[in-house]
């Protein structure tokens, strides 16, 4: 059975929203978002952030306490030690049913302008660590991918063609799709 999912695009002035519909194997099992209106992506150690709900339950909105310094930040503009994104990040969310309920797999790909050594340092820093990802939108609102304990992974992907493309790939499993963040 085939379903459909939507791909959203917001222009650089954040005024025009175009929606396209794409065919997918199941309407509830696959969603891929091009995060056009995301201006920065911050990765935090899960244990360092205080949430009002545990990660083992479904949550559409979560309240976050004081935010510690992130493990790393990728942004569209340079500054504050952030890695510079070379393109629009993509987030693929897949939903599968299991004995514990719905489990969402978040696969985030962040294309970056960086040398391989610096990116390997970031990957080594994230290996074996539980982390959550917070997306900051152009309007100042925030959303997150919240990981279950002991499942996040981080990889580096390099593609060679007429120019090199280096991407950081983060994969997490969660009990929720994208979660809205309240301060």
Architecture overview:
The structure is a single chain. The chain is mainly β. It contains 1 helix and 14 strands; from the N terminus they run E-E-E-E-E-E-E-E-E-H-E-E-E-E-E. Strands 3, 4, 5, 6, 7, 8, 9, 10, 11, 12, 13 and 14 form a 12-stranded mixed sheet that branches. Strands 1-2 form a two-stranded antiparallel sheet. Strand 12 and strand 13 form a beta hairpin.
Tally the helices. Answer: 1
Q: Which sequence of SSEs, written as H and E, runs from N to C?
A: EEEEEEEEEHEEEEE
Structural class: mainly beta
Percent in helix: under 10%
> What summary fits the major beta sheet?
12 strands, mixed
Shape: globular
Low-confidence stretches: 1-28
- Per DSSP E runs of 2 or more residues, the count of β-strands stands at 14
What is the gyration radius calculated from CA atoms? 16 Å
Distance between the termini: 40 Å
Mean pLDDT: 77
Strand content: over 45%
List the helices and strands and how they pair.
Blueprint: E1 3-10, E2 17-24, E3 30-34, E4 38-45, E5 61-63, E6 72-75, E7 83-85, E8 90-98, E9 101-113, H1 116-126, E10 131-137, E11 142-145, E12 153-159, E13 165-174, E14 179-182
Parallel strand pairs: 5-14, 6-7
Antiparallel strand pairs: 1-2, 3-8, 4-6, 4-10, 7-9, 8-9, 9-13, 10-11, 11-14, 12-13
